[in-house]
Design a protein that fits this description.
The protein is 37% helix and 13% strand. It has 330 residues and is an alpha/beta fold. It has a domain at 3-163: Alpha-Beta Barrel (TIM Barrel). The longest helix has 18 residues, at 238-255.
Length: 330
C-alpha cells in the first residue's frame, strides 16, 4: 500500500481510501449489516488501509459515522478519519455543534480531515472558514478540505485558508475535472480525493447495456434524462459510454486483467491524485480491490485508455457535476 501526504500537512493517508457511505445502507445502498461493516474496517486496517471517509449526511438505516466510530474503537491511532459537514450547517454559529456531533458519533476527540461536503453560496465562505479554522486551532480538527468545489469556489476558499484536498468524481468515464479543476488543484498543492473511481460499477463490466443499470445509478449525466430517477435535463451519452466500456474491457482482456483493476490503475496514474475512494461493503469486496493498488499499467496503455474515453469527455464538457445539468460546482 502506498501512502501520500494530505496537501502540505504531515498527515499521511493510504492511496486506497475506504468509502464508508455504504455503511448507512438504506435506499441508496440497500441493506447493510453493521457487523459486516465493522469487520470490513478491521480487515482494511489489517491490510494497511488507514484512510476512512464518511459524512454526517450518510444517515439512513444506520449512521455511517457511528458505525465507523464503533469499528475504530481501540484502533483510532491506526486510522485517518475524513468526514464532512453538510452545506446547510456552514452557518458559522452551527459549525462547532455540528463538528461536536460528528466527534461523538465517531467516538474520537479529533477529526483528521474535516471537509465541506458541498458549497453553500448563501453563506460567505470566509465566515465559514473562520469557524473551521477555530476548530483546527483548538485541535478538534487537524486539516480542512472541500468536496465538489469548482474553480471559482476553490479560488475563493484559497484566499482565506490552506485547503489540503478537493474530493471530486473522477474516472475513465467521468473526466470533466481535467478541463479546469484538476490543473487548479495541482497548481495549489490541493490533493484530489477521487470518488466514484469505477463510475459506480460501470467500469467493472457488470452491465452490458444502459437498460441493465439500476435506476439509482442511471440518474447520472452519462444516461438519458428519460431514465426514471434522472433530473439533469440532458440527452446523456449512453452510446458513447457503452462503446467506451466495451473498449476498456477489450484492453483489460489484452492485458489479462480485470477491467476494474485497469480502470483504477488509470486513475492512480493521473497527476494530483491523493486517494481513491472505494466503497467496499465486506472484507471480500475489499480483497477484490486491493490488487489494483499494487498494479502499474504498461507504458502507453494509460494514454490508450484516455483516447478510448475521449468521446465521452467531449460530450460531458467541463461540468463536473454528475447529476445536475445546472452545474453546482461553479
Amino acid at each position: 500500500m502506498q501512502y501520500k501526504p494530505l496537501g502540505n500537512t504531515d498527515i499521511k493517508v493510504s492511496e486506497f481510501a475506504l468509502g464508508c457511505w455504504p455503511f448507512a445502507g438504506g435506499k441508496v445502498w440497500g441493506p447493510q449489516d453493521d457487523d459486516v461493516s465493522i469487520s470490513t474496517v478491521h480487515a482494511a486496517l489489517d491490510k494497511g488501509i488507514t484512510f476512512f471517509d464518511t459524512a454526517e449526511g450518510y444517515n439512513d438505516d444506520s449512521h455511517s459515522e457511528a458505525v465507523l466510530g464503533r469499528a475504530l474503537a481501540g484502533r483510532r491511532s491506526e486510522s485517518v478519519i475524513a468526514t464532512k459537514i453538510s452545506a446547510a450547517h456552514l452557518v458559522p454559529e452551527l459549525i462547532e455543534e455540528t463538528c461536536e456531533a460528528s466527534l461523538e458519533r465517531l467516538q474520537t476527540d479529533y477529526i483528521d480531515l474535516y471537509q465541506i461536503h458541498w458549497p453553500n453560496h448563501d453563506v460567505a465562505i470566509e465566515d465559514s472558514l473562520a469557524a473551521l479554522l477555530k476548530l483546527r486551532d483548538s485541535g478538534k480538527i487537524r486539516s480542512v478540505g472541500v468536496c465538489n468545489f469548482g474553480v471559482q469556489d476553490l479560488s475563493d476558499v484559497l484566499v482565506s485558508a490552506d485547503i489540503v484536498t478537493d474530493q471530486l468524481p473522477y474516472n475513465l468515464l467521468w473526466r470533466p475535472i481535467e478541463v479546469e479543476i484538476l490543473p487548479k488543484c495541482v497548481e495549489n498543492n490541493v490533493g484530489i480525493i477521487c470518488y466514484s473511481p469505477l463510475a459506480q460499477g460501470l467500469l467493472t463490466g457488470r452491465y452490458g447495456s444502459p437498460d441493465d443499470v439500476p435506476d439509482g445509478l442511471s440518474r447520472s449525466r452519462l444516461f438519458s434524462n428519460d431514465r426514471p430517477l434522472a433530473s439533469h435535463g440532458e440527452a446523456g451519452c449512453e452510446n458513447e459510454t457503452f462503446e467506451a466500456i466495451s473498449k476498456v474491457i477489450k484492453t483489460a482482456e489484452f492485458l489479462g486483467e480485470h477491467p476494474a483493476k485497469v480502470a483504477l490503475a488509470w486513475v492512480r496514474s493521473r497527476a494530483g491524485i491523493t486517494s481513491l475512494l472505494v466503497g467496499a461493503r465486506s472484507p471480500d469486496e475489499l480483497d477484490l480491490n486491493i490488487p489494483a493498488f499494487e498494479y502499474i499499467l504498461p507504458i502507453g496503455i494509460a494514454d490508450q485508455l484516455s483516447e478510448t474515453t475521449d468521446p465521452v469527455k467531449t460530450k460531458l464538457g467541463s461540468n463536473a457535476d454528475m447529476w445536475s445539468g445546472d452545474n453546482r460546482m461553479r
